[in-house]
Write a structure and sequence with these properties.
By secondary structure, the protein is an all-alpha fold. The chain folds into two domains: 53 residues, Orthogonal Bundle (Arc Repressor Mutant, subunit A), CATH 1.10.10.60; 129 residues, Orthogonal Bundle (Tetracycline Repressor, domain 2), CATH 1.10.357. 73% of the residues lie in helices and 0% in strands. It is elongated, with a radius of gyration of 19 Å. The termini are far apart.
Length: 207
């Protein structure tokens, strides 16, 4: 639903999105009702339905907003960096920092990937992420910095490794985000460069 919103209206809508994202992550999408969301915010259902036609539309907006936020963070991190390999590293590190600061969204991404009505939207976001990575990978290959291969396949590999390390090391084991990023960078850059003695720039030395 598209409405022309005042500044106050935008703030109210953002409050709904933020509050609902936390509730969905904490309690699950299906058990969380519109009634619970508006009650938690202390507003009536009319406020909710002014901005969203349904709980599903709200959840879709949460996913889209999270995907935009993650991509903006990645783009900001690599701005001005001319080295494609360094851009890949900076993108990985920025992604892990963002996910560490936005655990609710990672939880919702995991749920959406297994839900038929939301999985296509999540895949679209992943396709954009893979295309972004593939562009830098191809630039690295052209510069002779990365072994020849399929840039898209390697982009999927980076996304898969990063998500797995975030899920297991960051959120299940509670490891420091910087060390999780070090592991992801060492593995991904090592793979892209044939594991030819790569040492990730900016890696944190063991204490």
């Amino acid at each position: 639903m598209q409405r022309r919103l005042t500044k106050r209206g935008i703030e109210r809508r953002d409050q709904l999105v933020e509050f609902a994202a936390h509730r969905f992550a904490e309690n699950g999408y299906h058990p969380t009702s519109v009634t619970e969301i508006v009650s938690g915010l202390g507003v009536g259902k009319g406020v909710f339905y002014w901005y969203f036609t349904s709980k599903e539309e709200l959840f879709v907006e949460i996913l889209r907003g999270a995907q935009r936020g993650l991509r903006r963070t990645q783009e900001k991190a690599i701005t001005g960096e001319g080295d494609p390999v360094a851009r890949i590293e900076l993108g990985i590190r920025a992604s892990i920092r963002w996910l560490a600061e936005n655990r609710d969204y990672f939880t919702l991404f995991q749920f959406a990937s297994s839900e038929e009505r939301f999985a296509p939207l999540l895949r679209l976001g992943e396709d954009v992420a893979v295309a972004d990575a593939a562009r830098h990978i191809r630039a690295g290959m052209d510069a002779g910095r990365i072994d020849e291969g399929d840039p898209a396949a390697l982009g999927h590999a980076i996304l898969g490794v990063t998500n797995q390390l975030v899920r297991i090391l960051l959120f299940e084991k509670g490891e420091d985000p910087n060390r999780v990023a070090d592991a992801a960078v060492r593995f991904c850059l090592g793979g892209l460069r044939g594991f030819s003695g790569v040492i990730a720039a900016g890696a944190h030395s063991p204490a």
